[in-house]
């Protein structure tokens, strides 16, 4: 058995394809529209070549870093992704335990299948909470309060989803929304019978606020003292505006190609995002982050 363990991410992907239903595999694996950005997110890494210097002592390699003051052994953290119970019965609790065992950090998605409280009490992983701005502001503020009182250390506001990406595989598969226990009593998903199309797209259309703007960043600052990170910024202009808005950091991201197709590959714009703010000398202790997720 030991010999058959996957040795790279592509082999894990093959196993996932066998283990999951087509609907769930496509949900996790797919992107928006033509999936150009989805493909380019990976292809762009192939365009970056390494320039090795030799005869350097590599017997001790230190990849440790810190994020908002939290130390970790490498700059790899768990991005917010919804619906972990489609892959494992323990859901986000399993993911949090895995993050804790690596001394890494987990960002819990608003769309978690486990309750905020359950994830918080399962282990001592450092946790941030990912938020959307709902049409009903009370929903967002209740989630923020619960994250605060359960020891989450930052709010990650996803800003690239005023409108849900057109994910054609989900439309074709009539993707069913998985339970969202954190939204029980706040938003009803009972009326989501899909007569056609993607249920999660309809859910997002009914609940998320498409008028999301910089005003909501101000609003969020007014209701929490936790540091705020904006996730989904890909241009220098917006990175600068984020600094001006006083957020603690920016997560350079195109949402894994699941939102706006033909947006640039995340890794290709990381430098632009950071350099633009550096150039103005405003970087200070701001955090710039990009993740590689498959
Ligand atoms: C299955 C799946 C679900 C996701 N759910 C969320 C989510 O609930 N909230 C969010 O902000 N991002 C979500 N994402 C996006 C990831 O956080 C992340 O941005 C993406 O996988 C990697 O692309 P990036 O390097 O451009 O950030 C999801 C991604 C996947 C693959």
From TrEMBL:
Gene Ontology process terms (BP): defense response to bacterium; hydrogen peroxide biosynthetic process
Domain spans labelled FMN hydroxy acid dehydrogenase: 1-294
EC number: 1.1.3.15
Cofactor(s) this protein requires: FMN
Localization annotation: Peroxisome
Parts of the chain that traverse the membrane: none
Alphabetic keyword roster: Flavoprotein, FMN, Oxidoreductase, Peroxisome
Catalytic class of the enzyme: oxidoreductase
GO cellular component: peroxisome
Pfam families found in the cross-reference section: FMN_dh
The keyword Nucleus is assigned to this record: no
One of the record's GO molecular function terms: (S)-2-hydroxy-acid oxidase activity
Similarity comment text for this entry: Belongs to the FMN-dependent alpha-hydroxy acid dehydrogenase family.
UniProt name for this protein: (S)-2-hydroxy-acid oxidase
Organism: Triticum aestivum (Wheat)
Origin organism lineage: Eukaryota, Viridiplantae, Streptophyta, Embryophyta, Tracheophyta
């Amino acid at each position: 058995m030991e010999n058959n363990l996957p040795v790279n991410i592509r082999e894990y992907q093959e196993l996932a394809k066998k283990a999951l239903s087509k609907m769930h595999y496509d949900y996790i694996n797919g992107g928006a529209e033509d999936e150009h950005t989805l493909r380019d997110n990976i292809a762009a890494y192939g365009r970056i070549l390494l320039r090795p210097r030799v005869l350097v002592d590599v017997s001790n390699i230190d990849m440790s870093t810190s994020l908002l003051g939290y130390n970790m052994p490498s700059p790899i953290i768990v991005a917010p992704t919804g619906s972990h119970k489609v892959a494992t019965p323990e859901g986000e609790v399993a993911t949090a335990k895995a993050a804790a065992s690596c001394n890494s950090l987990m960002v819990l998605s608003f769309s978690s299948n486990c309750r905020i409280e359950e994830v918080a009490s399962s282990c001592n992983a450092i946790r941030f909470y990912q938020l959307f701005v709902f049409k009903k502001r009370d929903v967002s503020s209740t989630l923020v309060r619960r994250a605060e009182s359960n020891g989450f250390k930052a709010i990650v506001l996803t800003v690239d989803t005023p409108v849900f990406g057109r994910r054609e595989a989900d439309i074709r598969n009539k993707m069913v929304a998985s339970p969202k226990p954190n939204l029980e009593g706040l938003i009803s998903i009972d009326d989501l019978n899909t007569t056609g199309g993607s249920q999660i797209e309809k859910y997002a259309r009914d609940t998320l606020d498409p008028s999301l703007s910089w005003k909501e960043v101000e609003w969020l600052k007014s209701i929490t003292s936790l540091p705020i990170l904006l996730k989904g910024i890909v241009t220098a202009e917006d990175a600068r505006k984020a600094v001006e808005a006083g957020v603690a950091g920016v997560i350079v991201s195109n949402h894994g190609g699941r939102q706006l197709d033909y947006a640039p590959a995340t890794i290709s714009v990381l430098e632009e995002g950071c350099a633009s703010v550096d150039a103005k000398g405003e970087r200070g202790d701001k955090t710039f982050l990009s993740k590689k997720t498959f």
